[in-house]
Amino acid sequence: MIQAKGYAAQTAETDLAPWDFERREVGPHDVQLEILFCGVCHSDLHQIKNDWFPGIFPMVPGHEIVGKVIQVGDHVKKFKADDLAGVGCLVDSCRTCDNCKDGLEQYCLNGNVQTYNGKGKDGVPTYGGYSNTIVVHEDFVLHISDKLPLAATAPLLCAGITTYSPLRYWKVGKGHKLAVLGLGGLGHMGVKFGVAFGADVTVLSTSPSKEEAAKALGAHHFVVTSDPAQLEAVKGSFDFILDTVSAEHDMNLYLSLLKTNGTHICVGVPSEAYAIHPFSLLAGRKSVSGSGIGGLPETQEMLDYCAEHNIVSDIEMIDMKDITAAYDRMLKGDVRYRFVIDMATL
Ligand code: NAP
Ligand code: ZN
Ligand code: ZN
Hints:
The protein has helices spanning 42-48, 98-101, 150-153, 159-169, 185-196, 211-216, 228-233, 251-255, 278-282, 296-309, 323-331; strands at residues 2-8, 17-23, 30-39, 65-72, 84-87, 90-92, 113-114, 133-137, 142-143, 177-181, 200-205, 221-224, 238-243, 258-266, 287-290, 315-319, 338-342. By secondary structure, it is α/β, with parallel strands linked by helices.
């Protein structure tokens, strides 16, 4: 076995702390990475706190992983030692169902294997990127361009693909009015992609202090959602709302901001179910939909698009030991716009 070290939550009630554990040996189709940087997603916090469902503990979070290949199995074709590489939210899937065959491994009909808080086909729990190394089947490892700053590339592996995928699926672009609800890790990537795809982008935020930064990200308009006059001014005006909010919020209020036939796309995952009144939908034939991360081919497409268009995340680098303080700031919406852990500080 490979000896690994990382930070783990031993239970849903304890903070993350140093933890030594084992990874599997590198198999014929496996790639071993030295993890250099790992982004901090709000899903990490949801999962170590059992916000969604009881987790598998000890839990090593982290699914925005970038690093350097240090070992490859005999049959690995796509990678060699010293290549830059990334791992996102998935490390395996059934590979045989219709969705897997279509490159939609995130919707695997037989249940995919998440990078952490999951169990591999061998029944062993998976451990994520808040650690020094990881071993993953080459099919679930992504190529990372050396054109982009590596640390700022890490958040593309979750925040990037989770916003890129729905905007591509709904073909959001020129002529569309897109609202991005919540300007955090996902939201700021949604703004960057929305602008790059040619949409007219409005940020809907609870934080007046983020206006200047939102404009610097390329947003065309900024609306403070606690101000009824500002909300009234954008009623019935959006083709799409990309909802990245991590906590409870009033869906009926936001649905009133959509045009007739508009679509509200849920990517944020609060712990409680939404309460939606039918009138909010039928008055204007509105749709509520959702989108989960992205499959492997689209994740590579997104990374290549970012390399070509010079798109990365705006990050604040932290030391591993400061993770709990970073979570506290994330809960207050005080992130500009993604914390990334420098694994050299582990
Ligand atoms: P984040 O960085 O904490 O951003 C969330 C933003 O939501 C905050 O910055 C804040 O923006 C806004 N917000 C927070 N509480 C709010 C409230 N009560 N009402 C209205 N707005 C509020 O989190 P993230 O990493 O971007 O993740 C966002 C959500 O997406 C999480 O629930 C996460 O689990 C989920 N997620 C889903 C997928 C998927 O596959 N669908 C993938 C990754 C993450 P303002 O200050 O601008 O209001
Ligand atoms: Zn994530
Ligand atoms: Zn499948």
